[in-house]
From TrEMBL:
Function: Plays a role in repairing double-strand DNA breaks, probably involving stabilizing or processing branched DNA or blocked replication forks. DNA-dependent ATPase involved in processing of recombination intermediates, plays a role in repairing DNA breaks. Stimulates the branch migration of RecA-mediated strand transfer reactions, allowing the 3' invading strand to extend heteroduplex DNA faster. Binds ssDNA in the presence of ADP but not other nucleotides, has ATPase activity that is stimulated by ssDNA and various branched DNA structures, but inhibited by SSB. Does not have RecA's homology-searching function.
Organism: Brevirhabdus pacifica
SUPFAM superfamilies with a match to the protein in the record: P-loop containing nucleoside triphosphate hydrolases, Ribosomal protein S5 domain 2-like
Protein name stated in the entry: DNA repair protein RadA
Keywords, alphabetical: ATP-binding, DNA damage, DNA repair, DNA-binding, Hydrolase, Metal-binding, Nucleotide-binding, Stress response, Zinc, Zinc-finger
UniProt cross-references to HAMAP family, sorted A to Z: RadA_bact
Domain comment, as recorded: The middle region has homology to RecA with ATPase motifs including the RadA KNRFG motif, while the C-terminus is homologous to Lon protease.
GO annotation, biological process: recombinational repair
InterPro entries in the record: AAA+_ATPase, DNA_repair_RadA, P-loop_NTPase, RecA_ATP-bd, Ribosomal_Su5_D2-typ_SF, Ribsml_uS5_D2-typ_fold_subgr, Rubredoxin_2
PANTHER family the record matches: DNA REPAIR PROTEIN RADA, DNA REPAIR PROTEIN RADA-LIKE PROTEIN
Family, per entry: Belongs to the RecA family. RadA subfamily.
Organism phylogeny: Bacteria, Pseudomonadati, Pseudomonadota, Alphaproteobacteria, Rhodobacterales
């Protein structure tokens, strides 16, 4: 058998390379390739190695049993993102920027799960047990029946967990874990991958749910948990703008529930508080109509959320005017600007454009296209939309507006928050009375004509 000669791996996509390079030709990322140390030398010559595994016909697995009960933490926002509670023996990765509040979230989760009757172990590789206890005290959780450990040696951790057999083990963080089967520093791709692999295997074999914490940096400098994403059942990202107190826990992959589900939290002096009605929170003070501000009726996962898009358009002194976006995709902003120019003849040349989603929320739905176009037009014309109106619809390159899913849920949420009117694409399915006066519009030219009288 040929000796494996590829010994460099990309932290972003996991592709293997024979040589080191600054740029990964599989995913295009820069500075993500580092040396990889193989876990073992593989089977000896002439044999396939290993023992014969057991095969089970799929039909034999069919039983009348209900799926294993999930455990709910009674932190509603967390349970929803997990798909209705924590599945036994599952492996969950919680990723996020350093300092965003992952340790706080998981300490609170550990206490909640423990109070729901699970045996929980919280292993910190970053803080001493005394520090974790101090944090728990600050969070008012010092009495929770959670066992703490401060350890980074993976072998010791697995031996301890094997003896204790807890229902849930939290590993904070995977970058600090060190496995003696791999000859490289903690935090390297090889170490992160080996430690995650061993911990997920442990979860499946010993029926212990494992939650791994992973740091991601914007530069992808440390071994990102991207490599780990393939191994685990559920990947959650904890996001938020540093300056804002709101934090979003988002499911990006979930074998046991819907992806794209979000949970909303607020960072307070006493830890993370759940936010049951995020719409009210993402809307800034809206007593008077303001030019450039448009409320988008969005759907995040299974939940309708109203958010405010704010645009500012100002004459530019630069040869290449600024396009600055916070909370939305900059490529999509360019598309909306191009459609406005090509289909409606409204040019933003020579103008700086700033677009912001209020409250530190990130929106990725294409249904926000129309709200963005409306905010841009409103800022450019210095004409405000009515303050009691929500907008949604996807924009195609021809300038036509396409209906989007869950129209009724969007309208219901808007009505609940006191809005009285909506602008939606032609063809949106609305059965019965939504309680709002809905204006249906076929294309962007029609929108400009109706709303701005151009
Ligand atoms: P932490 O959970 O340590 O972040 P991570 O594990 O993701 O690195 O949280 C760090 C920040 O949270 C820190 O800057 C302080 C803030 N914080 C509060 O505002 N209130 C609190 O009750 C706690 C525990 C932390
Ligand atoms: Mg931490």
């Amino acid at each position: 058998m040929a000796k494996s000669s590829s010994s460099f791996v990309c932290a972003n996509c996991g592709a293997r390379h024979k040589k080191w390079a600054g740029n990964c030709d599989a995913c295009g990322e820069w500075n993500t390739i580092s040396e990889d140390v193989p876990l073992s030398s593989g089977p000896t010559r002439g044999t396939l190695g290993g023992v014969r595994g057991r095969q089970i016909p799929l039909s034999d697995l069919a039983t009348n049993e209900t799926p294993p009960p999930r455990t709910r933490s009674r932190m509603e926002e967390l349970d929803r993102v997990l798909g209705g509670g924590l599945v036994p023996a599952s492996a969950v990765l919680v990723g996020g920027d350093p300092g965003i509040g992952k340790s706080t979230l998981l300490l609170q989760a550990a206490a909640s799960f423990a109070n729901s009757g699970m045996s929980c172990v919280y292993v910190s590789g970053e803080e001493a047990t005394a520090q974790v206890r101090m944090r728990a005290q600050r969070l008012g959780l010092a009495d929770a029946p959670v066992r703490l450990a401060s350890e980074t040696n993976l072998r010791d951790i697995l031996t301890t967990l094997d003896a204790e057999r807890p229902d849930l083990a939290i590993i904070d963080s995977i970058q600090t874990m060190w496995s003696d089967t791999v000859d490289s520093a903690p935090g390297s791709v090889s170490q992160v991958r080996a430690a995650s692999h061993e911990l997920t295997q442990f979860a499946k074999q010993r029926n212990t749910a494992v939650i791994l914490v992973g740091h991601v940096t914007k530069e992808g400098q440390i071994a990102g948990p991207r490599v780990v994403e393939h191994m685990v059942d559920t990947v959650l990202y904890f996001e938020g703008e540093r300056g804002h107190q709101f934090r979003i826990l988002r499911a990006v992959k979930n074998r046991f529930g819907p992806a794209d589900e979000i949970g909303v939290f607020e960072m307070t002096g006493e830890g993370l508080a759940e936010v049951a009605n995020p719409s009210a929170l993402f809307l800034s003070d809206r007593d008077r109509p303001a030019p450039g501000s448009v409320v988008f009726a969005g759907i995040e996962g299974t939940r309708p959320v109203l958010v405010e898009f704010q645009a500012l358009v100002a004459p530019s002194s630069l040869s290449q005017p600024r396009r600055s976006v916070v909370g939305w995709d900059s490529g999509r902003l360019s598309m909306v600007l191009a459609v406005l120019e090509a289909r409606c003849g409204i040019s933003f040349a020579g103008l700086d454009v700033y677009l912001n989603v209020a409250g530190g929320m990130r929106i990725s739905e294409p249904a926000a296209d129309l709200a963005v176009a409306a905010a841009l037009l409103s800022a450019r014309e210095d004409a405000a939309l009515p303050a009691d109106c929500v907008v949604f619809g996807e924009l195609s390159l021809s300038g036509a507006l396409r209906p989007v899913g869950q129209t009724e849920n969007r309208l219901k949420e808007a009505q609940k928050l006191g809005f009285t009117a909506a602008i939606a694409p032609d063809g949106s399915k609305i059965s019965g009375d939504s309680g709002l006066s809905v204006r249906k519009i076929a294309d962007l030219t029609g929108f400009v004509g109706e709303v701005f009288g151009a």
